[in-house]
Design brief:
Low-confidence stretches: 1-14, 20-29, 252-256
Radius of gyration: 25 Å
Strand content: 5-15%
Mean pLDDT: 84
CATH class: Mainly Alpha
Helix content: 40-55%
CATH architecture: Orthogonal Bundle
Shape: globular
Number of strands: 12
Strand order of the largest sheet: 1-2-8-5-3
Number of domains: 1
Number of helices: 17
CATH topology: Cytochrome p450
Largest sheet: 5 strands, mixed
CATH superfamily: Cytochrome P450
Order of helices and strands: HHHEEHEHHHEHHHHHHHHEEEEHHEEEE
């Protein structure tokens, strides 16, 4: 009888047991005390596949709730190869937004595509410097001047893509509209071949933004990197051109400056430029992503909601017809008109509550910190999701019900701070909230006054990958309203 296979199998088995025991013992010795409950799961993979599957089947919120039911509002797991702590609730949101011991964390793929110098990866004083520069472009006096230009872009978009059509697909149209608005106001890029080429590169760039960062020719990440390189070269060219203009005039030249011109013209007390060319390009890339996705998703899901909510739609039509009566024929909307669109913005806020564009985000612990009695080790990720508080019945009564009136008098609301977090919060709250508000209100003004619509798909669902996307991009049948001629 040949005993060699048996001996080999025995040796392998004993060795495996010994190695597993050694690794487990070391892990226990090195594992910090007082960690949250939960499991890190299989090395590297952890719970990543489970979360991604849930998001793509539109059950991501249930996946998070099941975990909270099992372990409580603070638990440990492993996501995307990194030990992670999931935190939930309004106190957790406040901790995420205001703790100086946490830095924003993004997948490495995003960093490689958008650049190393963007606001997404800066912390402390560097973050405040870049954020302050961006906010110069978004000052109230600047925003007031953008309303008419945005109104012009929306009117052209409606004429070219909605009028005379029997059916449209909403999400790609909203994405192109917000891209056109951003191209005009952020980069000063006029309509034409250059803008169209940048739009194509931008679409390819987005496809690999959250892909596995494997740079092989056939991967989505590789295609995204190449598209990012082309887009970056366009923005570098725009920056050089506008830099020559700024240097020629000694400063940014007018109140209608785009973002790049505005950033080029900023100087400190010593007369030195606040941002380098690389920082301007990297943050222009981020502004392109941020301004494009949130607004286009919000407007798409507002159209989706209004298709099955005739009472809300009728009230919005009335609001916008009253505004139109005060305008001369063909006169563009002005800043003062936006203040009269109170119902429309409440509908937008309720849409953001029920379908937040950002499922959640990560922070990285810069040092050992404690939350809710548990230790979070330095270098670990901390993960939060918006829907934990958005759909909490103790905060928002009947959370599954679409009810814009819950935002009528927020100061009197019993909702604790950091409960409605569609735009984040704290020092990193989205600096483009008002810009997004202008885009949304102006667009909905023209849509609800001139069209009525119904959904083409009986199945009214959406998935996240990672942003929410309605089934087939939300195709709708449209007809023109004759009362608003």
């Amino acid at each position: 009888m040949d005993y060699l296979p048996i001996v080999v199998a025995l040796v392998v088995t004993v060795s495996s047991v010994a190695i597993i025991h050694l690794l487990t013992t070391r892990a226990r010795k090195s594992c910090p005390a007082n960690l949250p409950p939960g499991s890190l799961g299989v090395p590297v993979i952890g719970q990543s596949l489970g979360l991604l599957r849930a998001m793509r089947s539109s059950t991501g919120d249930q996946w998070v709730r099941d975990r909270i039911d099992r372990y409580g509002p603070v638990s440990k797991l492993s996501l995307f190869g990194t030990p992670t702590v999931l935190v939930a609730g309004s106190a957790a949101n406040k901790f995420m937004f205001f703790s100086s011991a946490l830095a924003l964390q993004q997948p490495r793929s995003v960093q490689r595509i958008l650049g190393e110098k963007s606001i997404l990866y800066l912390h402390g004083g560097e973050h405040r410097r870049v954020r302050g520069a961006l906010l110069e472009f978004l000052r109230p006096d600047m925003l007031k001047m953008y309303v008419g230009r945005i109104d012009g872009e929306v009117r052209r978009h409606v004429e070219e893509n909605w009028r005379g059509r029997a059916a449209v697909t909403v999400m790609p149209l909203m994405k192109r509209l917000t891209f056109d608005i951003i191209s005009a106001l952020l980069f000063g890029l006029e309509r034409g071949a250059a803008r169209d080429a940048l739009a194509g590169d931008f679409g390819h760039m987005m496809e690999g933004m959250w892909a596995v960062p494997v740079n092989l020719p056939f991967t989505a990440f590789s295609r995204s990197l190449r598209a990012s390189g082309r887009a970056r070269r366009v923005l570098e060219g725009i920056t050089r051109e506008k830099k020559a203009g700024v240097l020629g005039h000694g400063k940014a030249s007018s109140g209608n400056n785009d973002l790049i011109t505005c950033l080029l013209g900023l100087t400190d007390e010593r007369g030195e430029r606040v941002l380098s060319d690389e920082e301007i390009v990297d943050n222009a890339m981020v502004a392109l992503i941020a301004g494009h996705d949130t607004s286009s998703i919000l407007m798409t899901f507002m159209v989706r909601q209004l298709a099955s909510d005739p009472a809300t739609l009728a009230a919005m039509v009335q609001e916008h017809e009253e505004i139109a009566k005060s305008k001369a024929d063909g006169e563009a909307l002005a800043w003062e008109d936006l203040g009269k669109m109170k119902l429309t913005w409440r509908v937008a806020q309720e849409t953001l509550r029920t379908v937040p564009p950002i499922f959640g985000s990560f922070r990285r612990a810069l040092e050992d910190i404690e939350f809710d009695g548990y230790r979070i080790p330095k270098g670990w990720q901390v993960f939060w999701t918006a829907n934990v508080t958005h759909m909490d019945a103790s905060i928002f009564q009947e959370p599954a019900k679409f009810d814009p009136s819950r935002f009528e008098n927020q100061s009197a609301s019993a909702a604790p701070p950091c409960s409605f977090v569609a735009f984040g919060g704290g020092p990193r709250i989205c600096p483009g909230i008002e810009f997004s508000r202008i885009e949304t209100l102006v667009t909905m003004h023209h849509l609800v006054r001139h069209f009525r619509w119904k959904l083409c798909c009986k199945e009214n669902t959406f998935v996240r990958d990672p942003m929410p996307t309605p089934l087939h991009g939300l195709p709708i049948e449209i007809e023109h309203r004759t009362s608003s001629a």
